[in-house]
Design goal:
Alpha-D-Glucose-1,6-Bisphosphate, Chain A, domain 4, globular, START-like_dom_sf, SRPBCC family protein, ASHA1/2-like_C
């Protein structure tokens, strides 16, 4: 398993992680607003195909000490919102939904959960239809940082500060992901 997400085809990122189980607990952290708010974003989610998804991001509040985004992400210093629609829902194994629906370039994220050794859970996160390399870099670093926080929360550990982690990871993904998507 690669520590970093990989590009499986143009505009598609895949990230795999082993999480502490059981699978129902991980599913709750994907779908329950309060639990999801500890690692990604709070917000209502209607768990059926076509259901509404709202994410209320407060990235600077996810970890202590509170850290601020770099200037590139200053608009996300406090609260930002994302809306989407559920495209697949098979509890507790599969959840997919559109990401930033309505902006004209919505993408789609999928979470696939399966049993793994010793009561753990394999998470396969796939984010599709990313429109540009900049978006791919931002999303790769974002998912890497957010899922790292999820693992820490599930393990009872204090996570690393979000924005400084995101900044470090985005620079590393820029080195790993070719500027030419066909390379």
């Amino acid at each position: 398993m690669n520590d970093f997400g990989v590009i499986t085809q143009p505009g598609t990122l895949r990230l795999e992680r082993v999480l502490p189980g059981p699978i129902e607990r991980v599913w709750a952290y994907l779908t329950d607003s309060d639990k999801r708010g500890t690692w990604l974003a709070s917000g209502e989610m209607e768990l059926h195909v076509g259901g509404k998804v709202e994410h209320v991001f407060r990235n600077a509040d996810l970890t202590a000490p509170d850290d601020l985004p770099p200037p590139k992400y200053a608009q996300h210093a406090h609260e930002s919102r994302m809306h989407g629609r559920v495209t697949a829902c098979e509890p507790p194994r599969l959840l997919s939904y559109t990401w930033f629906e309505g902006n004209g370039e919505d993408s789609e994220v999928s979470f696939e959960l399966s049993a793994h050794d010793g009561g753990n859970v394999l998470l396969v996160l796939t984010h599709r239809r990313l429109a540009s390399r900049d978006e791919l870099l931002s999303v790769a670093a974002g998912w890497h940082a957010h899922v790292g926080i999820l693992i820490d929360r599930l393990s009872g550990r204090q996570p690393q500060p979000f924005w400084s982690t995101h900044t470090r990871l985005e620079a590393e993904y820029a080195r790993r992901i070719p500027a030419d998507p066909q390379a």
